[in-house]
Amino acid sequence: MAKAASEISAADREEPSPRREVRNFASHTWGSPAQRLSGKGGAPRHQGRWVKGKSIRHSSKSDHAETDAQLTFRTYFTYVDAFRLLCENLDKLKAVQRTLPDFQNLFQRNSIPIDLVRGSLHRGLVNFQVMRSIPLRAFPECALTANVWSPVQAYYAVHGVGLAAFAALTGTCPSTHGKFLSKATNDLVPLLPFPFSIICEGNPWNSAGPRFEISGSKLQATEVRNTANLSTANASNAECLAVKAIMTSHTHRFKDDCADFKARKGIQRLTPSQARQLAPKVSPSSIFHFLYRLRLRSNYDDPMMFMAGQPDVGIATIHYMNLHKITHVFLSLLLEILYAVVDSSDVAKMREIYGRYSSRFPRPDWPTSR
What is the pLDDT of residue 56? Predict the structure, then answer.
């Protein structure tokens, strides 16, 4: 678990130490579950361990593991909350999407493999509708365990609708997750409005020049690096945190490629020239990569981030609703791409199918979000 804490700030060694930042973690106004859902604040408590203004005391290895889990969960909570803040107005995002040059160049295709489109679309919508069906108002404690699986449902919902868009645009679907993520970043992201248009590429370990190139945002990499990943998302720093989510996702992908290279070559570390040679081989990263990374972390690499990292039911509920929110907006924008290229009669059938799925699952009976 010590690895998880070190990975939180791995994007840049200039960031504040996570263990130092955890002292401020407890002082944020998270409040009781009822206070948090109503927007009011308060000092959190977790089994009597979080006290306002004081750091968490470590008395055993399990304490360190629990703190690592809290740090990791707080980081992802912040990133998801930042995206939620940036996509509150779906109608406005759709209006911006329609003005994008790449979106305006879309046209209806005559020969579309409609069965392939429908199959992928159905799979994506089923994942999303299951995600919506958790009765959080009646059983809010469900969020504590549902959050372990919700990143999988969110990613596969986006993956399914994304494949449907590819089938409509090109007649084929990428065969692997890696190919899907790369093609989605190159071909679908230009059709999406901010914040879904953020792209990051570059060499995170470059000491001779700029480490990152960011597109889809006016922010500079230095400004993003100086924003702590444990800070509370708000209107003033949400864009920084959203870009940071993509930037750290790109850093982790670069680190994974470096680890694979070292394993193949049987070496312990890379030279700067070897790192520079590997950097261009890592394709640009986008929100597709962030959702995929969250899916892997929650189910494979670090499930403890949810099993031990969630402070209470209120925070768990908010995180679940936030992830649902950005998934809903993301799917709505991907569907606009799909509707722009398929025949109007097929669009009517797809809307009918979506209506059947919606009626099969009740609308979310959830507490009022912040």
Answer: 42
- Of residues 43 and 366, more confidence is placed in 366
- 182 with 286: CB under 8 angstroms? no
Q: What are phi and psi of 213, to 5 degrees?
A: -115, 125
Q: How far apart are CA 257 and CA 282, in angstroms?
A: 8
Tens-place pLDDT, residues 298-321 = 888 888 888 888 989 999 999 999
Q: Which residues contact 370 (CB under 8 A, 6 or more apart)?
A: 36, 37, 39, 318
The owner of tokens 């692997």 is 176
pLDDT tens, residue by residue, 156-180: 999 999 999 999 999 999 999 999 9
d(CA 93, CA 90): 5
Cis peptide before 195 (omega within 30 of 0): yes
Output the pTM of the full model.
0.80
DSSP code for 199 = E
Max intra-chain CA distance, the chain: 67
Q: Which helix (H) or strand (E) holds 213?
A: strand 212-215
Helix ranges (DSSP H) in 266-312: 272-278, 287-296, 304-307
Alpha carbon dihedral 60, 65, 66, 71, in 10-degree steps, equals: 130
CB 111 within 8 A of CB 171: yes
- Please classify residue 352 by burial: count the beta carbons closer than 10 Å to its beta carbon, then call 0-12 exposed, 13-18 middle and 19+ buried: exposed
Measure the CA–CA gap between 111 and 59, rounded to whole angstroms.
65
